[in-house]
């Protein structure tokens, strides 16, 4: 319970309740895919090496907890140790990268038989529990799909952009559309699409075979409303480099097979330089609470301002405890609610903690914008 007349705590400085960034990390880039087997980890690894070769300081977090592969693909052996001063885990190093992976803690045959909460905890540990150095980019290799780990990433840190990896086959294209929808719902900017395994060109005769289909990445990217970053053909040397622990960009940066990854790194940098790395929708830049009046005011990045009565915010809490599971939302009246604290959740929501202990409602930015027009949230309507 807050003290009488106390001002609710706001995460961040100066009333800015956005999720704090990782200490010393400038940009966080997620590499995602709708399904497995599309070469996502190969893309993430070579992208990271390519960024490093361009002069950037780069970290690589393998949060594919169930199927970690970066220890093999980067040829890393060793067990990470805790930093004596901070007690954070020190990442291992390879090919100019700082790297953390679940694979460092497993032997070759050990499965990860964990339920969701343990996986979510490990994901948080690999983000905020690692002693990352000064980094220009932290590349996060996510597992395929739209489950616990991508959601935990979106809730734990503000992701600056996502690279979506797919192959030109119908089953992959259907899944990547769902992944793109997830990214948009989480207000995670999509930097563009990588069309991987886009045909095989015979080294002897030059004939191209569209092994996975002839659907073009440009058409997919246009359908998703995002740029096509690169098309990457099937090249045996890329697979051999990953199996040997030396990514193709590290082993042979002048090889034609390295060119798409170097181009991808350049386009990721360009996306941030020209502003395409910004969030997709407006986000709060300032949250202020007037405890005496029972009002929350939010200033948004698009220049708009909204305000809400405490009773309106509490009554339109979107959690399942308040709204049930029917999908039909209704106003829940709570007598004289008091707001305890506000904190950011990734780049897509605010978590409000009330004096009665209720704290499980995460108010997405889109929901906050919508309920600002509801009568219960307006001041002067008896809600304050």
Task: Describe the 3D structure.
With 384 residues, the protein is of the alpha/beta class. The protein has 2 domains: 105 residues, NE0471 N-terminal domain-like (2-Layer Sandwich); 249 residues, Rossmann fold (3-Layer(aba) Sandwich). Helix content is 28%, strand content 23%. The protein is built from 12 helices and 17 strands. The protein has an 8-stranded mixed beta sheet with strand order 4-5-3-6-2-7-8-11, with helices on both faces. Strands 1-15-16-17 form a 4-stranded mixed beta sheet. Helix 1 crosses helix 9. The protein is globular, with a radius of gyration of 23 Å. The relative contact order is 0.15. The N terminus is likely disordered.
- What count of structural domains? 2
The CATH superfamily of the largest domain is identified as P-loop containing nucleotide triphosphate hydrolases
Using only CA atoms, what is the Rg? Answer: 23 Å
Helix count from the secondary structure assignment:
12
CATH class of the largest domain: Alpha Beta
Compute the average pLDDT.
Answer: 88
What share of the residues lie within helices? 25-40%
The third-level CATH topology of the largest domain is: Rossmann fold
Query: How large a portion of the residues is in β-strands, by DSSP E?
Result: 15-25%
Short description:
The protein is α/β, with parallel strands linked by helices and 384 residues long. The chain has twelve helices and 17 strands. It folds into two domains: 105 residues, NE0471 N-terminal domain-like (2-Layer Sandwich); 249 residues, P-loop containing nucleotide triphosphate hydrolases (Rossmann fold).
